Predict the 3D structure of the following.
Amino acid sequence: MTNQLIGLFNPNATTFQKVRDSIILAYKLKRVTANREQIIKAAEQWGGTLTEEEIQQLLAMQEQFPEPTPLPEKPYSGN
């Protein structure tokens, strides 16, 4: 589903942009990051490839993501 969302918003994006947007969306939705193998696989799923420099940029980008904060626990309402 992520691929459909990314492609819908920017159908002319490069493979790098699509993978970058997928990583950002996955982090925002699930608080997960991608390793090197996942980045390469994502590029292949988009039908493209990434240079070593682009892979390094995507890995470095994720280091800037804020640390996930736990959600506050909902107080018991008694219902």
Q: What stands out?
A: The CA atoms of residues 31 and 68 lie 7 Å apart. The longest helix spans residues 15-30. The two ends are 36 Å apart (CA to CA).
